[in-house]
Amino acid sequence: MLQFSVYSRICNGEDGVQKHMKRLKENLPPVSGAIRSMKITEKQFENMDILLGEDTPEERLGSNKTDFF
Fold first, then answer.
1. Where are the chain's structural domains?
2. What angle do CA 8, 11, 14 make, to 5 degrees?
3. What's the confidence (pLDDT) of residue 68?
4. More confident residue, 66 or 24
5. Could you give phi then psi for residue 33, rounded to 5 degrees?
6. Transmembrane segments in this chain: where (predicted)?
């Protein structure tokens, strides 16, 4: 298992990404473990496929994608 919890944050541009990454780094918990960050573009996020389950109402509102299987 690579993940236990996944959180997302929408940022407007690289400056926003850097601001929030700095904030995260300054507030890391004082325990051992692993925290990872991955930056993806909106286009990459839109190309995500649903393998199991249904798309959420938020996904239906914000997506032009019509080929959900």
1. 14-61
2. 125
3. 45
4. 24
5. 150, -160
6. none
Indicate the length of the chain as a whole number.
69
Q: What digits encode the pLDDT tens for the residues 25-68?
A: 999 988 888 888 999 988 898 888 889 988 888 777 765 555 44
Q: What is the dihedral of CA 31, 32, 34, 37, to 10 degrees?
A: 40
The residue with tokens 């109402």 is: 57
Token reading at 41: 């573009």
**Contact yes or no for 62/48 (Cβ under 8 A):** no
Task: Please name the residue that has the structure tokens 């996904």.
Answer: 59
SS3 for 16-28 is HHHHHHHHHHHCC
